[in-house]
Design brief:
The complex is a heterodimer of chains A (323) and B (289). Chain A is built from 14 helices and no strands. Chain A is an all-alpha fold. In chain A, helix 2 runs parallel beside helix 7 and helix 3 packs across helix 10. With 289 residues, chain B is mostly helical. In chain B, strands 1-2 form a two-stranded antiparallel sheet. In chain B, strand 1 and strand 2 form a beta hairpin. In chain B, helix 5 runs antiparallel to helix 8 and helix 9 crosses helix 10. Chain B is globular, with a radius of gyration of 19 Å. The C terminus of chain B is likely disordered. Classes of the chains: A mainly alpha (323), B mainly alpha (289).
């Protein structure tokens, strides 16, 4: 796709996204779209760690939770407005992911995955038991909504779903743009080099540990921002949202459409937020079907949807090598 | 105080022997198929239910029921390997991981539908036998768990070291292609590995079901701790797994008894962090299986 084509595609997507509230005015639909947006933020940030740097992390929901708790506590105990509390959430998640990254990123593959999974369990245990701060399994209610400065008009707090919808679109666009700029830069090429061959990257003078920690910290911090958004949207948080099951959900979203692209995690987040809603009519069978679908998907489309489509197009366009 | 310490230590060793049985299966599957099987905890859960149903259905005594359940689970493991895991052997690790997550979700929720969420207990005939010595108190059932764990790890060590199949397993773990060229039927080794892993998990599940409770969601926390054992054990050999599982069991039991019970699931992670700090060059000493 050339430059003009890319601009047209971006503008069409933007126009389409802005029209959504006009087409789906029901609060229920808008809620699903807002959740899809939150999942997209999480999936983009995990995509930086897994898709571009090749480090498998199974504790993304832990950073999501730390961000949510950090932001909620900052706004409730310190009285900070959302726009400042959000940074508290993002920074606390970022600092913790930096510390964890420094400690565990020397591990590879399976070992890294299992260690991060257990870190996720640790965070859940702490959220459940550090009752004086987190209120334990009871959760934290009464989180304030984000507000806007008065000079921007009478619309001073985010009350309606429509306003949250536009806010989440802006957040996802911002995070996607950040990721896009990183991936296209020298920094992004270093990350991809590490994914492809860590020893080779090191031999070329790339300080792999520093870059891996950078990707891990940035991914964790952005997950914290998504958590802050979640806390100030749902207005109630409790440890059950941030379990390892959620980490795996986010991971599936990243892998589902194609983890080595930027659009992949966003598409995966959208599909995998809407699809389970459709499965709700299956009732108790829902998770049984989900498990079976996941297995079938991994066996038949190991490269994700984008990979499968690519393979199909290379097969039809004989003679041309696939991208 | 001293008596409480030794009591907690004894409980920790028994707990460790149960983690060991699960971890050994994970270790074999990881070493030979290079798959992280997050569904291994569900094999353990199904083994416990199999024992329960054999006892209530056939009226069998505890130990024969455990053996029968192990045989059923061996068959189950072979089927799972053939149907679920074989298509993705040699694919990137994330595929095996997600596949086993899918399998775990499927098995847990199918069990939830079929067996309901109510926790049940395996009523073994050893539960009422209390032993007291040196101020320690233990039921025969718990000692039996320790004895079964020790016996099975002994069998496994002998099997891997001295039988032809065991040697073939080690060869596949070292180099799959070279083993294939030497005429080792690699796929049959995969099946044997899964059968052994499922049997060990089933035995552990049955013991836990008799000491504690059986429920469809019992597998998930155990599998993570068993993975910690595998990492701490250094992926080297069975002896490493035995030592690491005892460490994890002791730390969890003593920490739960003397520091804080609420945080007991977090201690194995702290053990791992400590190990990283003491051995920054990494726990994995290059060799595998």
């Amino acid at each position: 796709m050339n430059r003009a084509g890319r601009w047209i595609a971006a503008l069409c997507t933007a126009a389409g996204l802005l029209c959504v509230p006009a087409l789906f005015s029901l609060d229920y639909y808008l809620h699903i779209f807002v959740m899809a947006g939150i999942h997209a933020m999480l999936a983009i940030s995990l995509g930086l760690i897994i898709g571009f740097t090749g480090q498998v992390s199974l504790c993304h929901a832990a950073f999501y939770g730390i961000g949510a708790y950090g932001s909620a506590l900052a706004s409730l105990t310190l009285g900070l407005p959302f726009w400042l509390a959000m940074w508290a959430g993002g920074l606390s998640a970022g600092v913790l992911s930096y510390a964890l990254g420094r400690l565990v990123l020397r591990l590879r593959g399976h070992f890294l995955a299992i260690t991060t999974a257990f870190f996720g369990v640790l965070v859940t245990v702490v959220l459940n038991n550090w009752v004086s701060v987190t209120k334990g399994p009871m959760g934290i209610p009464g989180i304030p909504r984000p507000g806007l400065p008065v000079f921007l008009g009478s619309w001073t707090t985010f009350e309606s779903r429509v306003s949250y919808y536009y806010l989440v679109v802006a957040f996802v666009a911002g995070i996607a743009y950040l990721a896009y700029r990183i991936v296209g830069s020298r920094l992004g090429r270093a990350l991809i080099a590490i994914r492809e061959n860590e020893e080779l990257a090191q031999s070329l003078g790339i300080e792999t540990m520093r870059y891996k920690v950078f990707a891990f910290t940035l991914g964790g911090g952005l997950a914290g921002v998504a958590g802050a958004f979640y806390a100030h949207y749902i207005l109630f948080i409790s440890p059950v949202t941030f379990t390892i099951g959620e980490s795996i959900n986010i991971l599936v979203m990243v892998v589902f459409a194609g983890m080595t692209t930027l659009a992949g995690p966003i598409i995966g987040a959208a599909i995998l937020t809407i699809l389970p809603e459709l499965l709700r009519m299956a009732g108790a069978l829902r998770l049984v079907i989900y498990g079976l679908t996941l297995m079938a998907f991994i066996v038949w489309m190991p490269q994700g949807i984008v990979g499968a489509v690519r393979e199909l197009t290379t097969r039809t366009r004989t003679g041309k090598p696939g991208g | 105080m001293i008596a409480v310490f030794f009591q907690q230590a004894l409980n920790g060793i028994i707990l460790g022997s149960l983690y060991m049985l699960v971890a050994l299966g994970l270790f074999l599957i990881f070493g030979i198929l290079e798959v992280t099987n997050f569904a291994h905890g569900e094999f353990y859960m199904l083994g416990a239910f199999a024992t329960l149903f054999v006892m209530t259905g056939l009226g069998a005594p505890f130990l024969p029921a455990v053996v029968l359940a192990m045989l059923c689970m061996a068959a189950f493991g072979i089927v799972v390997e053939r149907v679920v895991f074989r298509p993705i052997v040699g694919k990137p690790l994330i595929n095996g991981m997600l596949l086993s997550f899918g399998l775990s979700t499927f098995l847990t929720n199918a069990a939830l539908l079929l067996f309901t969420a109510d926790p049940r207990k395996i009523e073994s005939e050893f539960a009422q036998v209390h032993l007291r010595f040196l101020g320690l108190h233990v039921t025969l059932e718990r000692l039996l768990a320790l004895a079964v764990g020790t016996a099975l790890v002994g069998f496994l060590a002998y099997f891997i070291q001295h039988t032809k199949t065991g040697k073939a397993m080690r060869a596949v773990a070292q180099d799959r292609i070279a083993a294939q060229m030497a005429g080792i039927p690699v796929f049959r080794i995969y099946a044997v590995t899964f059968a052994i892993g499922s049997m060990l998990a089933s035995a552990a599940g049955s013991m836990v079901g008799a000491i504690f409770l059986v429920s469809p969601d019992m597998g998930w926390t155990v599998v993570l701790k068993a993975f910690i054992v595998v990492i701490l054990g250094g992926m080297g050999n069975i002896r490493g797994i035995v030592c690491a599982s005892l460490c994890v069991g002791l730390v969890e039991s003593l920490g739960g008894g003397f520091v804080s019970y609420a945080y007991k699931d977090a201690y194995p992670f702290l053990l791992l962090v400590l190990a990283f700090l003491l051995r920054p060059e990494g726990l994995v000493g290059g060799r595998k299986a």
